[in-house]
Amino acid sequence: MRDRDIEVALAARLYRAGLAKILILRAFGDSIAGKTSFIDELYASARGEDAVIGQCIADVAGVVFEYAPQTTGIFLRSGPDITVLPHARIATTLTPDSNALIYIAPTIEDIAFVKRRLSGRKDVAARLRVTTPSGVRDLLRIGHQELLADKAARMIEDFRCEYSAKTVLTGQQGILIGMLITCLLLDALEKQQLGWRGLHVFFSLFFLACVLLRLVACKRASGDDPPPLPAISPAELPVYTVMIALYQEADVVPQLVKAMLALNWPRSKLQVLFLCEADDAATLTALRCQVLPQSFDIIPIAGYGPRTKPKALNYGLLLSKGAFVVVYDAEDRPHPDQLLEAFQHFQRADEKLGCLQAPLKIANAHESLVARMFAFEYAAHFQSFLPWLAHRGLVLPLGGSSNHFRYDCLIAIGGWDPHNVTEDAELGTRLARLGYRADMIARATLEDAPAEAGVWFRQRTRWFKGWIQTWLVQMRKPFTVLAQLGFRRFIVYQLLAAGMIVSSLLYPLTLLFMLSVSFCWLSGSDVFARHQDILCIDLINIVMGYLSFHRLGQRALAGATMPGRILPWIPLYWLLMSLAAWRALGQLNTRPFLWEKTPHRPARSTQETPDRNQ
Question: Cα angle at 47 between 42 and 49, to 5 degrees?
Answer without folding.
Answer: 75
